[in-house]
Write a structure and sequence with these properties.
By secondary structure, this protein is α/β, with parallel strands linked by helices. It contains eleven helices and twelve strands. Helix 5 links the parallel strand 5 and strand 6. Helix 2 packs parallel to helix 3 and helix 5 runs parallel beside helix 7. The protein is globular.
């Protein structure tokens, strides 16, 4: 429960990270009460991060939480950073349009949460980009991004755009139209410092993976947790993302082919900082990363099966 005196200090809150348990009614009510109160007193709010802990009640749409967030975004005209990755509820176009209307100073927005249903369409994202010209970091599900949005980000008068996180985890992502390589190339030329984070989950079939992994995407972080082929994507990354790849995470079944692909990637991607493989690998894989990646600072490369959770090894 929130202490009563907190409500007297709302005008002085500039950055708020709010964690609550949606399955516990007191915790949930306190969170919605605070967001609702902030909606009426938000002159100084610059950053908001919402994080749910514990279990989400079955079939819980989070309507009360989203309604209070909707009201807050309509009033927080100075908001610059909004992180909703920790919300387990389905985010929709209405919320994105409210953010576009009420938060023109936005610098970062993360909507790539763990929901299994994608309800943010490309149209609302395009309106967001037009309404928030200073946006420099964006997190989305793949189905929410379009070629038109990439072209808008590459416009000559656009402020520098630095980070794009794409999560491919729901059926809508698997059916999303491909984002052509020439659009990615134009975006990279316009923003040479752009870093892209790709997270590919089991919902993505093999043919969709090949549409997502375009050669010109400046992939800095690649997380593979596919139900199908993982060797092909690892080899593709080795050949096309060697100059930009800084972090790799692989969840797959151990195989000699995967070990060989990882060794090839280690030899090509000298700028890697992190590599985490949640399957047993042969000793030569570990030796390859240690030998060819001088900037490596942490890795999870197990030579024998250990009890979970597997902890990374930090490089001194």
């Amino acid at each position: 429960m929130l202490p009563p005196h907190l409500f007297a200090c709302l005008d002085h809150i500039h950055n708020l990270r709010l964690e609550f348990e949606p399955s516990r009614e007191p915790s949930r009510r306190a969170a919605t009460d605070l967001l609702t109160a902030l909606a009426g007193r938000t002159p100084g709010l610059r950053g908001l991060c919402l994080e749910c802990r514990g279990e989400k009640p079955l079939f819980d749409s989070g309507r009360d939480v989203l309604d209070s967030l909707h009201a807050l975004c309509g009033a927080a005209g100075a908001l610059r950073h909004l992180d909703l990755r920790g919300l387990p509820f389905t985010l929709d176009d209405a919320l994105v349009l409210q953010v576009a209307l009420g938060c023109p100073e936005l610098r970062s927005l993360f909507l790539d949460n763990g929901t299994l249903v994608g309800s943010v369409g490309p149209g609302s994202v395009l309106e967001l980009l037009e309404a928030c010209p200073r946006l420099r970091a964006l997190g989305l599900h793949l189905a929410s991004l379009s070629r038109t949005a990439l072209e808008a980000l590459a416009a000559p008068d656009r402020s520098p755009f630095e980070f794009l996180a794409l999560r491919c985890a729901c059926p809508e992502d698997a059916r999303a139209p491909p984002l052509p390589n020439d659009a990615w190339a134009a975006l990279s030329r316009r923003h040479p410092g752009l870093a892209v984070e790709l997270e590919l989950e089991p919902a993505l079939p093999g043919e969709s993976v090949t549409r997502v992994l375009q050669p010109a995407v400046p992939v800095a972080a690649l997380r593979l947790s596919l139900s199908g082929d993982t060797v092909g994507p690892v080899r593709f990354a080795a050949h096309h993302y060697a100059a930009t790849l800084r972090a790799l995470e692989v969840r797959a079944t151990s195989s000699a082919e995967l070990d060989t692909a990882l060794e090839e990637l280690a030899a090509r991607c000298a700028e890697l900082r992190e590599v985490h493989c949640f399957c047993v690998v042969r000793a030569s894989v570990l030796h390859s990363f240690r030998a060819h990646c001088p900037h490596l600072r942490s890795y999870t490369l197990k030579l024998t099966r250990e009890p979970h959770p597997w902890r990374p090894t930090l490089v001194a």
